[in-house]
Amino acid sequence: MSLTYSNLYFQNFNTAADNVKHLKKRPSDNELLSLYGLFKQATQGDNTTGQPSVLSVKDRSKWNAWNSHKGLSKKEAQEKYVQIANDIIAKYGLS
Predict the structure, then answer these.
(1) What is residue 86's predicted lDDT score, i.e. its pLDDT?
(2) HSE-CB of 60 using CA atoms within 13 angstroms
(3) What is the DSSP string of 78-92?
(4) Residue 14's closest CA among 48, 34, 43?
């Protein structure tokens, strides 16, 4: 079975998503939010949920991270996720 470019990127995306669960150190909140937003865009597409209350700081930050990628295709989000995940993995290492 030959792999298409899309299938290869999907495999790289899944590998990167698994690898970031095994970092030696916890990334910064901004790095985690960047990964979160791209992951949601790559797996679910544009954010169509209502914006959480300003009092829910964590939920609002996650919503904003996802919403910041609105309009990006799932494939483009996967590619960006892999790039950022690889940078974070290089920075923190895997356990």
Answers:
(1) 95
(2) 6
(3) HHHHHHHHHHHHHHH
(4) 43
11-64 pLDDT, tens digit per residue, is 899 999 999 999 999 999 999 999 999 999 999 999 999 999 989 999 999 999
Phi, psi of 55 (to 5 degrees): -75, -20
Alpha-carbon span 22 to 16, nearest angstrom: 10
C-alpha–C-alpha distance, residues 75 and 82, integer Å: 11
Q: Which segments of 2-95 are extended strands (E)?
A: none
Is a pLDDT exceeding 70 seen at residue 7?
no
Which residue ranges make up each domain of the chain? 5-92
Model pTM? 0.88
CATH architecture of the domain 5-92 equals: Up-down Bundle (1.20)
